[in-house]
Design brief:
The complex is a heterodimer of chains A (128) and B (163).
Chain A: E1 7-11, H1 15-28, E2 32-36, H2 39-49, E3 53-57, H3 65-73, E4 83-87, H4 92-100, E5 105-108, H5 116-126
Parallel strand pairs in A: 1-2, 1-3, 3-4, 4-5
Helix pairs in contact in A: 2-3
Chain B: H1 6-35, H2 47-68, H3 72-90, H4 97-119, E1 132-133, E2 136-137
The chains are: A alpha/beta (128), B mainly alpha (163).
Amino acid sequence: MSPTLQRIFYVEDEPDIQAVARLALEAVGGFTVEIAGSGEAALARVAAFQPDLLLLDVMMPGLDGPATLRALRALPAAAQLPAIFITARVQSHEVTELTAAGAIGVIAKPFDPMTLAATIKKLWEARR
Amino acid sequence: MNRPGTDYVAQLAALREEFRLSLPERLARLEREVAALPAEWNEVGPVTPNALSGLRACAHSLAGAAGTFGMPALGQRAHEFEILTQQLLTHPERRNPDTLARLRCLFESLTCEAGGSAAASPPRDTATGAQLADGQPVFSVDSELPPGEPVPWPVLPNPETPQ
């Protein structure tokens, strides 16, 4: 795992959100970002990208965010990767469930494109 | 972190404009989904869960995008609509003429809000060049959402509770 956060693998089915997040993470955060449009696509592509961090939407058709994370954890390439969920479901019990599923943090949607990268970086640094 | 330049702000504004221009088509799709619901909702037919799933997906997409593009009021209306459709999906016993009427009422509210957002020509923020809408900064530079901080969506009243 990289000691610094450079490569983010984002699983998100909404094209609008994909576009804004990519712009925010690349232009502001300076990260390299790969986006998969579904949990199934993530499973197929994560190993080739070799990310430092997984960023996952929660509500998606097919495999949802937690199911995607569970499936990714079964892959050697993603077994130990820190993961962050990004979702509108941020009531306290929902956040508890998501962190129990193995996430280092939960970011609320709608997110602020200007601060998304900084928020992710804080969570990355706080995980240690 | 890099300091976002004018190119970044312009690209964000372009994405927002693209979203704004897509609103009529999104609403038309939602309207078709609402129209596909049964006129009398006394029975749960096989079509109802599919129709509700489609509605929920449309509303979920709209809620997430609108909020991110600085249209919080529209995002909130869409979120309320999404919550009600989710409740009706998971609680079939709540599907009755009253909740159907409430769903249609929420759709009207959403349409009104979307019409305002789509027609709005927001002023320009002199500090960042970002557009403003709904009285809120579209892309706030100074505000920082603490990690995991819940967005204060209002809790919808239970449809079974008399208003």
